[in-house]
Specification:
The protein is 82% helix and 0% strand. With 509 residues, the protein is an all-alpha fold. The chain has a single domain (9-204, 216-508), classed as Up-down Bundle (Growth Hormone, Chain: A), CATH 1.20.1250.20. The chain starts with 6 loop residues before the first helix and ends with a helix.
C-alpha cells in the first residue's frame, strides 16, 4: 500500500482548504462586523445568531460524516462530495454578504437563512474534505506532512480574504460598503470554484474503510434521527447557559448533563449485538479516549484562535484608529501562519506531537497575555506580538487534524471499525462550534461594555473590552487546552505500532 504522497497531491489537497478558508476565515473575521456595522443587526442579536447556527451544525456535521462513510462511487467516498457541494458553497458565500433593503426583523430572518445555508454547504463540503486526509495514506507521519500543506493552503486562502478584503471593499464599493462586500464576494466565489476543482482532480483515496454492519444509508439516517436528542438537547443547554448566564439556564444545563451521564452509562453497558449501527458508532467514539480529549482540545483552541481573530476588525477600527491597518495585520499573521504550518511536520518529528502541542499552547498564551500591556496605537508592538503568537497558533490546527487521523487508527486498531467520516465530522463540528461560541463571546463582551456599532458615543466605553478580548480572555482557553493535552494517551511509538499493525491487517484481508 502506497504511503508516500507525491508533492503535487499534497499541494492539490491544500488548494481545497485555501478555497474553504475564503469562506471560513472571511466569515470568522468579518461577518460579525459586517452584520453590526454594515447590515445593521445589533450585537446581541448577532451573538444569538452565531449560537443558533452552530447548534444546527451539531446535527448536520454528524449526519454528513455518516453519509460520507457510507458513500460508494467510482471516485471514492469523500471526493465526490467536494465536487457536488462547491457551487452551493460559492452561492451562499455571496448571499451572506448581500444587503437587501429589508426591515429590521426581515434582515434578521435573511441573515439566519443565508448563514444557515452557508454553514450547511460548508458542512457538506468540508466534512468529506477533512476525512479525505484520513484515507489518502495510512502513514501517520505522511498525514502530519499533509496536514502541514493543508493548513499552509488554509492560511493562504485566509490571507486573501483577511488581508485584502477591507481594501477590496473600499475600492469596489467606492464608499458603499454594502456593494463593496458583495462585489468582493463575487471574485472570491469564482476563485473558490477553481481551487476546489483542483483538489478533486489531484487527490486519491487509498485507504478503504468499511462499515461492518451491512445496513443501508437510509436505515442508518433513520436510526440517527432517533438519537438526535442526545446531540441537540446538550447543545441547546450549553447554548442557553452560555448566552443567558443565569440561574434557570444553569439549572437546565446541570440537569441535562446529569441525565446524559446516566444515559451514556446505560448505552455503554449494552452488549454490542444489541446496538444499532449508529449506537455502535457512538460507543466506539465514547470509548475512544484520544478522540474525546481531542474533542475538548479542538473546542478550546478554536475559542482561543476564534476570539483573537473575531476582535481584530473591531480592535483596529476603534482601539488603533486605523481600520485598513487590520488588513495589513492579517497579512502579517497569515504569512507567519504558513511558516508555522509547514514547520509542524519537522517539529513534530523532532519533539513529538503531544509535547509540541503543549508547548505551542503555553507559548501562545504567554504572548497573548502580553497584549494587555501594549499602549494604545503602538503598531510595532502589536505586529511583533501578534506575529510571534501566530507562529505557534498555526501549529495547533495542523496537529489537531493529523491527530484526528491517529484517533481513527486507534478506533480501527481497537474495535475493528473505522468510521473516518464520523470522527472527522466531529472534529470539524467542534471547530465550527468553537468558532461560533468565540464569535458570540466577542459580541457578548462588547455588548456588556455597551457597544453599538451604529452609535459612536458607545465606542469609548467598549475599548477595555476589546483589550481583554485581545489578551486575557483567549489566553485562558489556551492554558486550559494545554492542561487537557497532558492527558492525551497516544505517543509516537504507539502511533507507529498501530500503523504497522493496521497495514498488516489490511494486506491480509
Amino acid at each position: 500500500m502506497t504511503t508516500k504522497l507525491p508533492f503535487y497531491e499534497k499541494v492539490g489537497y491544500a488548494m481545497g482548504d485555501a478555497a474553504a478558508n475564503l469562506v471560513w476565515r472571511g466569515a470568522l473575521a468579518y461577518l460579525a462586523v459586517f452584520y453590526t456595522d454594515t447590515f445593521g443587526i445589533s450585537a446581541a442579536a448577532a451573538a444569538m445568531l452565531f449560537l443558533v447556527v452552530r447548534l444546527s451544525d451539531g446535527v448536520t456535521d454528524i449526519i454528513m460524516g455518516m453519509i460520507a462513510d457510507r458513500t460508494s462511487t467510482k471516485w471514492g467516498k469523500f471526493r465526490p462530495w467536494i465536487l457536488w457541494s462547491t457551487p452551493f458553497l460559492a452561492l451562499f458565500m455571496v448571499l451572506c454578504f448581500t444587503t437587501p433593503d429589508f426591515s429590521e426583523t426581515n434582515k434578521l430572518i435573511y441573515a439566519y437563512a443565508t448563514y444557515i445555508g452557508l454553514t450547511l454547504a460548508y458542512t457538506v463540503n468540508n466534512v468529506p474534505y477533512s476525512a479525505l486526509m484520513g484515507v489518502m495514506t495510512p502513514s501517520d507521519t505522511e498525514r502530519t506532512s499533509l496536514s502541514g500543506f493543508r493548513f499552509a493552503g488554509a492560511f493562504a486562502g485566509g490571507l486573501l480574504v483577511m488581508g485584502f478584503l477591507p481594501d477590496l471593499v473600499a475600492y469596489l464599493g467606492d464608499g458603499n460598503d454594502a456593494l463593496g462586500y458583495q462585489y468582493t464576494m463575487y471574485a472570491f466565489a469564482a476563485l473558490l470554484i477553481v481551487l476546489m476543482l483542483i483538489t478533486f482532480a489531484t487527490t486519491k483515496e487509498r485507504v478503504v474503510p468499511t462499515i461492518d454492519d451491512g445496513s443501508d444509508l437510509k436505515s442508518e439516517v433513520k436510526d440517527l434521527t432517533k438519537n438526535l436528542p442526545f446531540i441537540i438537547i446538550p447543545l441547546l443547554s450549553i447554548t442557553l447557559f452560555f448566552y443567558y448566564r443565569e440561574l434557570y439556564s444553569g439549572l437546565f444545563f446541570t440537569l441535562v448533563m446529569i441525565a446524559m451521564w446516566f444515559l451514556i452509562k446505560r448505552l455503554l453497558a449494552n452488549p454490542s449485538d444489541k446496538l444499532t449501527g449508529t449506537q455502535r458508532d457512538m460507543v466506539d467514539l465514547l470509548t475512544n479516549k484520544p478522540w474525546l480529549i481531542l474533542l475538548g482540545i479542538g473546542f478550546l483552541t478554536m475559542m482561543f484562535n476564534g476570539i483573537k481573530y473575531g476582535v481584530i476588525a473591531y480592535y483596529f477600527k476603534y482601539h488603533v484608529g486605523d481600520e485598513l491597518m487590520a488588513g495589513k495585520y492579517f497579512i502579517g499573521l497569515l504569512i507567519v501562519s504558513i511558516l508555522g504550518a509547514l514547520s509542524t511536520s519537522y517539529l513534530s518529528k523532532k519533539f513529538g506531537k503531544k509535547p509540541l502541542f503543549i508547548a505551542a499552547l503555553l507559548i501562545s498564551a504567554i504572548l497573548t497575555i502580553a497584549f494587555y500591556w501594549v499602549p494604545q496605537g503602538n503598531i510595532t508592538a502589536i505586529f511583533i506580538l501578534g506575529c510571534s503568537t501566530e507562529f505557534f497558533s498555526a501549529i495547533m490546527p495542523t496537529l489537531f487534524f493529523t491527530m484526528l487521523g491517529d484517533s481513527a487508527d486507534y478506533s480501527e486498531w481497537k474495535n475493528g471499525r473505522r468510521a473516518t467520516g464520523l470522527i472527522y465530522s466531529a472534529g470539524t463540528f467542534i471547530q465550527k462550534t468553537g468558532g461560533g461560541f468565540a464569535g458570540a463571546l466577542v459580541l457578548i463582551v462588547l455588548a456588556g461594555y455597551g457597544y453599538d456599532g451604529m452609535d459612536e458615543s458607545t465606542i469609548a466605553a467598549s475599548l477595555p473590552g476589546m483589550q481583554l478580548l485581545m489578551s486575557w480572555i483567549p489566553a485562558g482557553f489556551a492554558i486550559l487546552a494545554a492542561i487537557l493535552m497532558m492527558y492525551y494517551p497516544l505517543s509516537t511509538q504507539q502511533n507507529k505500532q498501530m500503523s504497522d499493525d493496521l497495514v498488516q491487517r489490511r494486506s491480509a484481508e
